[in-house]
Amino acid sequence: MNTETNILVFLECLKTRFKQNFNSSLVIREQHGRDESSFTVPPPDAVVFAESTQDVVDAVTLCAAHGVPVIPFGVGSSLEGHLLAIHGGVSLDVSRMNQVLAIHAEDLTVTVQPGVTRKALNEAIKHTGLFFPIDPGADASLGGMVATRASGTNAVRYGTMRENVLALEVVTASGEVIRTGTRAKKSSAGYDLTRLMVGSEGTLGVVTEITLKVYPLPEAISAAICSFPSIEAAVRTTIQIIQMGIPIARVELIDANTVRMLNQYAKLSLHEGAMLLMEFHGSPASVKEQAEAVQEISTEHGGEAFEWATTPEERTRLWTARHNAYFAGVQSRPGCKVISTDTCVPISRLADCLLESVAQADASGIPYFLVGHVGDGNFHFGYLLDPNNPAERETAEALNHQLVARALALEGTCSGEHGVGLHKMDFLVAETGEGAVNMMRTIKQALDPKNIMNPGKIFSLKT
Amino acid sequence: MNTETNILVFLECLKTRFKQNFNSSLVIREQHGRDESSFTVPPPDAVVFAESTQDVVDAVTLCAAHGVPVIPFGVGSSLEGHLLAIHGGVSLDVSRMNQVLAIHAEDLTVTVQPGVTRKALNEAIKHTGLFFPIDPGADASLGGMVATRASGTNAVRYGTMRENVLALEVVTASGEVIRTGTRAKKSSAGYDLTRLMVGSEGTLGVVTEITLKVYPLPEAISAAICSFPSIEAAVRTTIQIIQMGIPIARVELIDANTVRMLNQYAKLSLHEGAMLLMEFHGSPASVKEQAEAVQEISTEHGGEAFEWATTPEERTRLWTARHNAYFAGVQSRPGCKVISTDTCVPISRLADCLLESVAQADASGIPYFLVGHVGDGNFHFGYLLDPNNPAERETAEALNHQLVARALALEGTCSGEHGVGLHKMDFLVAETGEGAVNMMRTIKQALDPKNIMNPGKIFSLKT
Question: I need a surface site. Which of A30, A107, B153, B273 has the fewest CB within 10 A?
């Protein structure tokens, strides 16, 4: 966008096309100009509420004609600044594209619009005996989950969005509609455009339809919590479970301090030690077998106070507690801002990576919560910062840098599931090297020559 | 390459650099100028045997400087003309890059050079109690399996190369070495370059290192064959097994005629009806449970003559028989050429797709064998053609066209696992539409502006 006049002309065009679905009020723009990250930047110039693929095509085409940035928006639950309008432009809100378009129970696939949230999808398919397992905690939109290559608690058994998206409909930067795959379970037909789009954070196009794998609800489900004398004991238990190939569905770590926050936040009375939350899926016999094996391993590492949750209500209570860790952390320090870490390392390196990071965080004096999808080698510190104390932010960012450096040295990644956004651009270069990032830049420039699709995220175009 | 002189100058440069690892004898060139497809084209201008990543860098750099095509070569088992030097150039043979570089048993990962074959990998990790499950039949090189996004008999439980490659080292078209990932089990760090390379058939770079997932050998394995009164009964049994979510490891179909070919080829005495070959992996209790459930479903569909194979020797005999179907087919019509089909459809559409195609093939009078990774909805006709009878080829290609059209109408893909190569370029356009193929072209042109990496495969650059 060149001049002030141009933007006004452009906004007038957009308003003419979208009428009541165009909004440039400050309150709506501000709502679309922030996410769960701790960045503050000016809001987008306008918000368009898309109700169809054609709406997305028209919005992108208008933006392309005027060289204006387009930022796809789902529910705003991303954590790394993905949604922020750092170069101005239009927030393209797809939350009203919230139809489940097809349920093919007989093929274990569904096709949805991008504004459907994971909970809404599970509600819509409940009657079929199927479920969609990917669970990042927040009730994120599935479009957003595609964009960040999300995963969460069930990934240890069911994989991430990488493994569970079969095909996409995408509006490209030139406003063209393409399909990236079919409903076949596997394919060797050409480049894997589906997985190029999964994790591209809105920088290569706008996702308008998603075909996903779904799974039969397990015949039996059993969940348990177990307390450990130390984080190390809990982590070593996890490593052994994974190395033995036990097909556990979820294995989550919460440290003692975070358990304390949770007890306070949700009026619970969990034992205040390092804790594993686990869940087993399968036939009744297989669940029993898994649970017995895991209980044995846990006991060897000093695990005690096993508590079983077999009814759906008990399990919901358990996982709600887990998902409340973020809010419990925030409430433990009123007014704080959170910086989340997201490293993921090979399972054998988990203890090394985690324990050293805990020691450093403890030494820093910065309050934090600690949770982990430890079955995948992925964990999150949430550093709880006083926004009026720049020294704290500096300390937290230094801790995060050291943690990422440690994870990379242990052959891990800077981001297990949150994505790069604005926050991890330097980490990405440290992880992959300039060569791979240059390849990403080349692809971006080829597919979005005007650089209008969520510009300035994942990497800087300047080398 | 512009003139005859240029190619001579270029070959001299290549020879100077690679000495005894350069070969331009006709016999070696011809060996590298054919694959298992039925195409015949002139061989490459020369063959270079790479022994290191640096060799690949130097070969690609020289080819780039002279604008000469580079065609990566593993063991030559691809089926769709992937390896053919349709624009001349250099066949870059990586079969001597056959080292297993790292075995991280504690993380269930290995890192290998691209010339390691799947059987060699399994031999190398046998002592760790781990195995690599992807089994396309042929003892393909892992580099080639990356290139075609291969899968095979175990994919129903363990996924394909798409799900099992964690990271790659790739030499790009400009001779740069990049790494596409880490050993972390999951990552949201930037574009998924790993999966962009998996299935790119050598058109975007040369793979020089591969990090793969491996799996603990199941505590118990049990295999069975079961005869059915019709193909339909076998297929409906399969559909029900998959829809019930039974975690079967393998479920393969062989039609009655192919069983007859196998009996003759390998001196077996299998019951000559439509047959399912199945394998179950898990704990002893879980294998028993799966096998019982499957036996019940099979019996409901008229399955009989269940034969169990529980010792490794019996299982090897069974799977060797399955993998010999191709050769048994070829031997049943001495001197014939094979055209393989490779459609894959959602499981609920499998009966429709397969039965109609069988009826058409039977009506055509063309001899064929029929095998299928039916648990994934993927099956292969091998039409057995008299190479001296062009009418037969025409009929077979017409059958294949009709089959692909049928699969696409049923929301399937033209290629489940063989790749596009030369043979399925039109099918790819029919499947994805020009929009998606144009996106592939744009990526190819951006990453390989001189069009030297295996040019002319997957799609034509001219639209």
Answer: A30
Whether residue B107 and residue A346 make contact (CB cut-off 8 A), yes or no, is: yes
ipTM, interface predicted TM-score of the complex: 0.96
B100/chain A closest Cα distance in angstroms: 18
**Least CB-CB distance to A414: which of B150, B189, B199?**
B189
CB contact under 8 Å between A182 and B416, yes or no, is no
Give me the tens of pLDDT residue by residue for chain B, a chain 463 residues long. 445 668 899 999 999 999 999 999 999 999 999 887 778 899 999 999 999 999 999 999 999 999 999 999 999 999 999 999 999 999 999 999 999 999 999 999 999 999 999 999 999 999 999 999 999 999 999 999 999 999 999 999 999 999 999 999 999 999 999 999 999 999 999 999 999 999 999 999 999 999 999 999 999 999 999 999 999 999 999 999 998 889 999 999 999 999 999 999 999 899 999 999 999 999 899 999 999 999 999 999 999 978 888 888 888 888 888 889 999 999 999 999 999 999 999 999 999 999 999 999 999 999 999 999 999 999 999 999 999 999 999 999 999 999 999 999 999 999 999 999 999 999 999 999 999 999 999 999 999 999 999 999 999 997 6
- In angstroms, rounded to a whole number, what is the distance separating the alpha carbons of residues B153 and B250? 6
- Cα distances (Å, whole numbers) of residue B53 to A387, B173, B177, B207, B398: 49, 14, 8, 9, 43
Compute CA distances B179 → A433, A435, A460, B450, whole Å.
8, 8, 19, 22
Interface contact flag, B439 A447, Cβ < 8 Å: yes
Nearest chain B residue (CA) to A444: B443
Q: What angle do CA A167, A345, B144 make, to 5 degrees?
A: 50
CA of B266, closest CA in chain A: separation in Å? Answer: 31
Contact B188 A427 (CB under 8 A): no
**Residue A417, SS3 per DSSP:** coil
Task: Specify the CATH architecture of the domain B4-93.
Answer: 2-Layer Sandwich (3.30)
Angle at B127 between CA B125 and CA B128, to 5 degrees: 70
User: Rounded to 5, what percent of chain A is helix, strand, coil?
Assistant: 45, 20, 35
Question: Using the beta-carbon criterion (under 8 Å), do A195 and B193 form an inter-chain contact?
Answer: no
The phi and psi torsions of B220 (rounded to 5 degrees) equal -130, 145
DSSP state of B88: -
Cβ neighbours of residue A74 under 8 Å, at least 6 residues apart? A94, A95, A114, A115, A140, A141, A142, A143, A144, A147
Return the axis-axis angle of helices B53-66 and B4-18, rounded to nearest 10°.
160
Q: A220-409: what fold?
A: Vanillyl-alcohol Oxidase; Chain A, domain 3 (3.40.462)
**Domains of chain B: which residue ranges?**
4-93, 100-216, 220-409
Residue of A nearest to B347 (CA): A107
Query: Nearest residue on chain A to B196, judged by CA atoms?
Result: A192
Q: List strands edge to edge, sheet with B100-104.
A: B100-104, B109-112, B206-213, B165-171, B177-179
> Which of A104, A191, A238, A425 is the best residue to mutate to test the B interface, defined by the most B CB atoms within 10 Å of its own CB?
A191
Answer yes or no: do A185 and B344 touch at CB < 8 A: yes
Q: Do B149 and A188 touch (CB under 8 A)?
A: yes
- C-alpha angle B175-A180-A87 in degrees, rounded to nearest 5: 75
**B412 contact residues in A (CB cutoff 8 A):** 182-184
Helix ranges (H only) for B244-389 are 256-266, 284-300, 312-323, 325-332, 350-364
pTM of the model: 0.97
> Across chain A, which distance is largest between two alpha carbons, in Å?
71
* Inter-chain residue contact A109 with B346, CB threshold 8 Å: yes
Which amino acid belongs to residue A115? Answer: G
Domains A4-93 and A100-216 share a fold: yes
